Amino acid sequence: MQVDTLILGAGAAGLMAAAHAGGRVLVVDHAKAPGEKIRISGGGRCNFTNLHASPANFISRNPHFCKSALKRYTQWDFLDLVARHGIAWHEKTLGQLFCDNSAKDIVAMLLAEMKTAGADLWQSTAILSVARDGAGFNVTLERDGRQVMVQAANLIVATGGKSIPKMGATGLAYDIARQFGHAVTDTRPALVPLTFQPERFAPLAGVATSVTAACGQTSFAEAMLFTHRGLSGPAILQISSYWVEGDSITVNLMPDADPYEALRSQRQASGRRQLGTVLAQMLPTRLADHLATEWALAGNLADQSDAKLRALADRLTGWALTPTGSEGYRTAEVTLGGIDTDGLSSQSMMSKTVPGLYFIGEAVDVTGWLGGYNFQWAWSSGVAAGRDI
Ligand code: FDA
C-alpha cells in the first residue's frame, strides 16, 4: 500500500499533523482508541492550552528551538479551532484553559478535522519495522493478525514519550530517531510527584497548602499536596521538571506573608501563646503540629528572642527537603528530554539529514510546564510538520 504521508501515533500531535498534511495520509497507532491521553487529561476536561503560552514555558537543551512553531501556530489559533467546533471552555487559573464539558470534545474535534482533510486512521496496529527505501520509507505494520507493508514518501513520528506505559507509551520514537542517526538526549520523568523516605510525610497525607517551591534558580508559586509517599500538587509537579536525584528543593511555606514580622507582632500582642498554637494559625493544623514536633518547637512566644523568631521564620520560608526519588514514568505527565533538536528543522520538524522524516510532540526534546503547555507544543509542532508536506 502506498501513501504520501504515514503518521506513527494517533495522539495529540499525530492527529493535528494529519489534519494539516495534504495528499494521502494514514495515521496508525497500537492503542484501541485515538487520543487517549487527551481523553484522560485535565481530570477529563483537558487543559488544552494556556493563554500565556510562550517559549519561556518550555524546557529544552536548545530553548530557542520551540519559538518558530509556537509563533506560527499559537494558543489563539487553537482557540479559533475550538470556537469553530462550538466547544465551550473556561479559564481555571493562571491562563489554563479547560473544556466546560469533556476532553472527549477535543478528540472528536481532531478526528473531524482529520476526516475533513481526508486522512485515514488505523487503530490496534503494531509497528514492526521502519526502513528507508530510496527517497521514501517502508514501514511494516501488523493489523488484524496480518502484516501490511506501507510505502510512504513522508514519515511523521508522533509516538510520544515514555510516560504512563500502562496507556501504551513506548520509547519507539527514540528508537526510530537513533536508527536514522539522530541523537536522543537523556530522558527522565517530569511533572511527577516526588518521593521521600517511607513514612516521612504519611501522617500529613491529604494536607494541601500554598507554597513557593524552588530548585536552583527556578521557582513556582502554587499549591503543594502531601501524599502517603511524598509531595505532589502543582508546585511540586512543576519543580520536578527541574529536579535531579541528589538535589534538594526549598519550600517557602508562607509565600504571601513575612513570618518574622507576623511572629514578632504576635509576641507583642499575645506573648503567652505557645509557639505550636501560633504556627497552627499560620499553616494547616496537621502540618503545624508536624513541624512543631520535627523542629522541637517549645515554649511560648514571650520566651523567644528576635534571633529565635528569625530562625523559625527562615525555616518556614526556606524548608529544605531532599527527595529520595520520583514516582517515575508510572505517573509522570511527561517525559523530559527526547530527540535532540539539533538534528531537526525548527520550522518544519523535519530531520536535517533524512528528508521526509519528521518528529513531533512529546518525543522531541521540548517539554512544557504544567498548565496546557504540552498540548500547545503538540498542536504547534504537529501543524509545523503537517503544513510542510
Ligand atoms: P501522545 O502520548 O499523546 O500520543 C502518542 C501516541 O502514540 C499514543 O496514541 C500511543 O498509543 C502511540 N504509540 C506509542 N508507542 C507506540 C508504538 N510503539 N506503536 C504504535 N503506537 C504507539 N498536557 C497538557 O498540556 N494539559 C493537560 O491537561 C495534560 N494532562 C495530562 C494528564 C496525564 C495523566 C498525562 C499522562 C499527560 C497529560 N498532559 C497534559 C501531557 C500530554 O498528554 C502530552 O504532552 C501529549 O499527549 C503529547 O502528545 P503526543 O502526541 O506527542 O503523544
TrEMBL record:
It comes from the Bacteria. Gene3D superfamilies: FAD/NAD(P)-binding domain, HI0933 insert domain-like, Translation factors. Residues 4-387 form the RsdA/BaiN/AoA(So)-like Rossmann fold-like domain. Its cofactor is FAD. Coiled coil: none annotated. Residues 188-334 form the RsdA/BaiN/AoA(So)-like insert domain. Transmembrane segments: none annotated. InterPro entries: BaiN-like, BaiN-like_dom_sf, FAD/NAD-bd_sf, RsdA/BaiN/AoA(So)-like_dom, RsdA/BaiN/AoA(So)_Rossmann. Keywords: FAD, Flavoprotein. This is NAD(P)/FAD-dependent oxidoreductase. It comes from Seohaeicola saemankumensis. The lineage of its organism: Bacteria, Pseudomonadati, Pseudomonadota, Alphaproteobacteria, Rhodobacterales.
